[in-house]
Amino acid sequence: MTRFVKGNEAVVIGALYAGCDVYFGYPITPASEIAHAAAKVFPSVGREFLQAECETASINMVYGAAAAGTLAMTATSGPGMSLMQEGLSYMAGANLPGVVVNVMRAGPGLGNVYPEQGDYNQAVKGGGHGNYACAVVAPASVQEMCDLTMRAFGLAFAYRTPAIVLADGLLGQMMEALVLPERESPRPDTSDWALHGTAATRSHLVTSIYLDAAAQEAHNLRLQAKYAAMRSEARHETYLCDDAELVLLAYGICSRICRTAAEMLRAEGIRAGVFRPITLNPFPAEALCAVLEGRRGMVVELSAGQFRDDVLLHLAKEGGRTQPITLCNRLGGMVMTVEDVVQAARAVAKR
Q1: pLDDT of res. 319
Q2: Three-state secondary structure call for residue 110
Q3: Closest alpha carbon to 297 in 250, 237, 343, 232
Q4: What domains lie within the chain, and their CATH numbers?
Q5: Does the pTM of the predicted model rise above 0.85?
């Protein structure tokens, strides 16, 4: 079955197919349609919707629901995501799963409601305190706004960690055809750690505080081991890369611009391809190094170079090499055109 929906609405459909029990939300542009759709649809299918008084309350409600083994989520943008950082750190420290959708807008501060990708570091590097990380997926279509929301729930419960769906205002607001999932995801078993209010789960402990320094270090080392195991979940997509001499590196909406740019460049005789990470954490570093072997690279992003800097970092850490990576970017809610990317790529090809 196919529906014509907004990207924000596709998030809600994906959450329901993932088995999400409850949505805690506070509306904020350009993510408001997620809360609006959840308020309408969740109760109609026997799920719960609760509008929180603010973003800080909503993430802490997700924390409480997760501790009880419930599949819970929230969504926000920009300043709202900043308010959720303490709660995300608490969830990561307590080994609790949950999903947060960030439909990125321009910042810093209040910014504006136009699309940007300036929240990359906040999402991928752990925007709160402590040595924690979240699983991060980056959709590039309305279909993936649904599918990767489902994937985020799977990662969250498989590794008992918060998962972030990192989208942007364009993806949230655009409308495309969505093929509905064939079936609902299997419900995860939480009986060995969650607090179900039963005698069998009375001894379970949900906490992130270890007042003994040695115990806190051991807890942190367990978290790092979990994040290392999560690397097997890295996913990426390539387009026209088999014979490419220039690889355009982008995620989210920018990867769609790059696909068209690559086709136009090839029509001019410049063999261009596209590398798109689907998971930003874990990052497909090994695949990145392989696709850039002997090729030039140009990052296309809606930020000041946060993604480009990560590309350079992964090349150095995983591949043990340094190579110049050109940056084509816009800021403040301005979106580059296909022609902008083509012109920047021509300059790289000439060098």
Answers
A1: 87
A2: coil
A3: 250
A4: 2-232 (3.40.50.970), 236-350 (3.40.50.920)
A5: yes
